[in-house]
Amino acid sequence: MPTTQPFMAMMLCGACCFSVASWNGYKYTGKERDSESGLDNFGKRYYGSSLGRFMSVDPHDFVVSDARNPKKFRSDLLDPQGWNRYAYVTNNPLKFADWEGLEKYLVVYVQQPVAGTATTWTREGFGVNTGHAFIGLKDTTAHTETKAGFYPKEMGTVTPLSPSTTGVVKDDSNHSWNVKQEYKITDDQYNAVQTSISNDKADTNLQYDLNTNNCTDWVMDTAGLAGVTLPDATGTWPQGGGESPGPLGQGLASQPGATVQQQNGDGSSGSSSGSSAKADEQKKPEDQ
Amino acid sequence: MKQLLVLAVIVTIASAQTESPGTHRVLVAGVGCGNLVVHKTKRSDFLPDAATEKRFANEGLTFTFDANDTLDGIVAVGNKGYKTDKGVSPGDKEERVLQAYGKPEKSGKMVLNKGENEPIGVIGDRTLMYPGVLFVIAKGRVWAIEIVPAS
Q: A-chain residues within 8 Å CB-CB of B54?
């Protein structure tokens, strides 16, 4: 379906240019063309197909998606093509596509009990820390991100000796984390996850179980609604075991593009990351 | 006779190969269990994968590690034959602990947190802390024994 003007034209006949639009009536990614200006409307900015570039800079820098696998994305400041803010998908339309001009992400956050290890729990004095995992839904068009996580409804009721209780999904906007991974998702996937989280927040019959339906299970199940399969997160603890933030964090940290902090925090300061592109991305949009 | 001797050697070798590091089942305060030594043994030395971790858990042992993935704690639960070098096992009455170890250095409620400071539960009735070992008491009996570094 997609045409690849002018990239394909350049590939076929070098510098000689002729109109490939006449080959068929489709535009690459199916965007509407303004009949007067000849520009394709990508929502946030216009694309000049005859020039092979956008008419304005990309408001969301350096992020491209893999057209063959929309849930994956790549950020790479090392690619000089990525520095061209007028470029379309780093001038590589055969590999990447920018469907909307802007993007939506499922973000998985993990607070490991011991940052940088798969340990499922740690103890300091009379306090045991099991870590936490939660989900973010990021819409770069609206510059919004909502975060939510799964908890026992009645705090103080869950232990390895008594692992089950009623559960509740709560806002996790201010929760700290030390590993973050983002997955580009489609509008439909975004809406499915958003609806599911809203339903879970309203559900008074959710069951929390330390071994079989904890915060990590909820994150993995919810991510699955967006077609995102998270790495194995199985671990053990006294008299039990199951999915756990420690192993999940290790699995995510080993994936390309993960943001990893040595200490748990909100990512606003003192963080290191898997790549320089991610370090740049840590900045809030209004800071850029 | 020669065949029997060969068979005995094979059995001995096979037995040694399947022996897990915690086979000795004696928990030594501040030290460890068998050749698992707190503050010394690395995760990679004995827990190569999740399956091995699960096998230990089924045998009643779970572990914690520090930021360098060095063994930081060994926890024994259930009636799996583990006991301290002073003879206390999971399932023993609290009085047995007090008889063997005397007055605890500290005692209190062990709080289970989601993250650093979000309590979701209290583990057992109380925890008795001694140098290098602590006992979690639930319903008057030892539910868990944790071996930790002595310092």
A: 234, 236, 241
